[in-house]
Amino acid sequence: MNSLPKQLPPYIKNENGELWLTEDERENLKISYRIKDIIFSDQSPFQHVMILDSYDFGRMLVLDGVIQTTSIDGHIYNEMISHVPLQFHPSPKKVLIIGGGDCGAAREVAKYKEVEEIHMVEIDEMVVNVCKEHLTDVSGNLSDPRVKFMYTDGVAFIKEHANTYDVIIIDSSDPVGPAKELFSYEFYSNVYRALKDDGLMVCQSQSPIFHMDVLKQTHANINKLFPYSTIYTATVPTYPGGLWSFTIGSKIPLSLSESKLMPTDTKYVNADVLKQCFQLPQFMKQQLL
Amino acid sequence: MNSLPKQLPPYIKNENGELWLTEDERENLKISYRIKDIIFSDQSPFQHVMILDSYDFGRMLVLDGVIQTTSIDGHIYNEMISHVPLQFHPSPKKVLIIGGGDCGAAREVAKYKEVEEIHMVEIDEMVVNVCKEHLTDVSGNLSDPRVKFMYTDGVAFIKEHANTYDVIIIDSSDPVGPAKELFSYEFYSNVYRALKDDGLMVCQSQSPIFHMDVLKQTHANINKLFPYSTIYTATVPTYPGGLWSFTIGSKIPLSLSESKLMPTDTKYVNADVLKQCFQLPQFMKQQLL
């Protein structure tokens, strides 16, 4: 414990010699993770950034006290937000990722040889740098020359591009603070404009258990803009409620090609998961379809 | 807060006038739920039994401080442990439930008109009584005359029956304390014997994230005893890790009949979920199949 800073970051408490991170963004639910070590802790211009080493989930990226991704389950989210849209696109050459500072989505996209350019637009350079250095289980210490990092506001960036991308992945944090605009109708309409004529987008659309309102609104917005849309789910253990939703908007009909190769080194997604993730539980069908 | 007992039960703390239940059965992960009210709290001969009213999950059954089921997500677990095996059996007439004191599984089984007898073998009568009275969102205040309650030890009960049941549902708590024997090879071999020649069983087999060892051992035991076995999953928000597994052992080939009717009043399971729940993520396939 010699590496501990003299003053503990907010969100972390020392209880009888044990360090605990408590997530309390929900008013009536707190999840506490026992921490081995604080690897990195600093305030960026945008948020408080930590890399923690936890007992149950390995290393974690924590922004403003909220876990974003971990060594143990980060791949579930990152594989699902990347491979599903890429499997739908007939020939993804130019991919834009908005957010995704942990680099996990870019790492998954880079597994497709046909992809020529990956533009990563992340507002917070500190997040990318610490994930590349300290969270390599998730980031893979990404150094693929096809990835171009742009540290700027995704909302402003998207307005300046039209008919440019094959696939756009919106890998945002929760719709509070800086990420709020990434859930707006105006933003999605700019995403539509930035896509090529056969392009498609995906976004994380929150927990169907706790934020059905956000999922409903996101799906309604995307469904209004795009001729084709669909919702899929995955189970992400460190996200409250476990069940997580993603929404796709597409300019072309959504059909999975049997001939499209899935990278062989995935840990969660496979051809079976690709088929099952669109089969929604009854309460979601009733409220959404 | 006038209804509060003078002395708070263990597991519940009063923090600045707010009541919080903290689940800490895992050493390095604590989940805390804010509680509106303690509806029931008493020690049975087997365990400490509580019904709590929580802010995020409604009423909860809590045994020895561990949440077993809630108003908000209890149906997910209960529908999945009941409808999946019943959909596989060509003609389920006599069903045994071991455990399942919240009555939710019995409630789901009772939705099948072809079922003639439902034997509920639960060791703790207090659990059944308080769930029938105080947790009706889960129990449905079950009063179906086909359900026969037997308050006895499932391990002893199963030894005394041979060639008796079409479907056996093992709805146990975690494999610690009284439920430990319900995960043993000897117990499953007695379950095999208690099933008719075309019978099948299902058990909950814990979290693939945190207890892959339990799932592996359970699957190995069942796979050794039964000619046909399979694993399926569901997402249960109040179980640590979210993703939960179930294992089926069957004396007959497992095939879903298109003609078999699914009850129309389910909230989670439907024909789509029935097909997708057997499609396992890659890490489970690699370790189990």
UniProtKB/TrEMBL annotation, chains A, B:
<dbReference type="InterPro" id="IPR037163">
    <property type="entry name" value="Spermidine_synt_N_sf"/>
</dbReference>
<dbReference type="Pfam" id="PF01564">
    <property type="entry name" value="Spermine_synth"/>
</dbReference>
<dbReference type="InterPro" id="IPR035246">
    <property type="entry name" value="Spermidine_synt_N"/>
</dbReference>
<dbReference type="GO" id="GO:0005829">
    <property type="term" value="C:cytosol"/>
</dbReference>
<dbReference type="InterPro" id="IPR030373">
    <property type="entry name" value="PABS_CS"/>
</dbReference>
<feature type="binding site">
    <location>
        <position position="102"/>
    </location>
    <ligand>
        <name>spermidine</name>
    </ligand>
</feature>
<dbReference type="Pfam" id="PF17284">
    <property type="entry name" value="Spermine_synt_N"/>
</dbReference>
<feature type="binding site">
    <location>
        <begin position="153"/>
        <end position="154"/>
    </location>
    <ligand>
        <name>S-methyl-5'-thioadenosine</name>
    </ligand>
</feature>
<keyword id="KW-0745">Spermidine biosynthesis</keyword>
<keyword id="KW-0808">Transferase</keyword>
<comment type="pathway">
    <text>Amine and polyamine biosynthesis; spermidine biosynthesis; spermidine from putrescine: step 1/1.</text>
</comment>
<feature type="domain" description="PABS">
    <location>
        <begin position="18"/>
        <end position="251"/>
    </location>
</feature>
<feature type="binding site">
    <location>
        <begin position="171"/>
        <end position="174"/>
    </location>
    <ligand>
        <name>spermidine</name>
    </ligand>
</feature>
<dbReference type="InterPro" id="IPR029063">
    <property type="entry name" value="SAM-dependent_MTases_sf"/>
</dbReference>
<comment type="similarity">
    <text>Belongs to the spermidine/spermine synthase family.</text>
</comment>
<feature type="binding site">
    <location>
        <position position="178"/>
    </location>
    <ligand>
        <name>S-methyl-5'-thioadenosine</name>
    </ligand>
</feature>
<dbReference type="GO" id="GO:0004766">
    <property type="term" value="F:spermidine synthase activity"/>
</dbReference>
<feature type="active site" description="Proton acceptor">
    <location>
        <position position="171"/>
    </location>
</feature>
<dbReference type="GO" id="GO:0008295">
    <property type="term" value="P:spermidine biosynthetic process"/>
</dbReference>
<comment type="subunit">
    <text>Homodimer or homotetramer.</text>
</comment>
<feature type="binding site">
    <location>
        <position position="47"/>
    </location>
    <ligand>
        <name>S-methyl-5'-thioadenosine</name>
    </ligand>
</feature>
<feature type="binding site">
    <location>
        <position position="122"/>
    </location>
    <ligand>
        <name>S-methyl-5'-thioadenosine</name>
    </ligand>
</feature>
<comment type="function">
    <text>Catalyzes the irreversible transfer of a propylamine group from the amino donor S-adenosylmethioninamine (decarboxy-AdoMet) to putrescine (1,4-diaminobutane) to yield spermidine.</text>
</comment>
<dbReference type="InterPro" id="IPR001045">
    <property type="entry name" value="Spermi_synthase"/>
</dbReference>
<dbReference type="InterPro" id="IPR030374">
    <property type="entry name" value="PABS"/>
</dbReference>
<keyword id="KW-0620">Polyamine biosynthesis</keyword>
<protein>
    <recommendedName>
        <fullName>Polyamine aminopropyltransferase</fullName>
        <ecNumber>2.5.1.16</ecNumber>
    </recommendedName>
</protein>
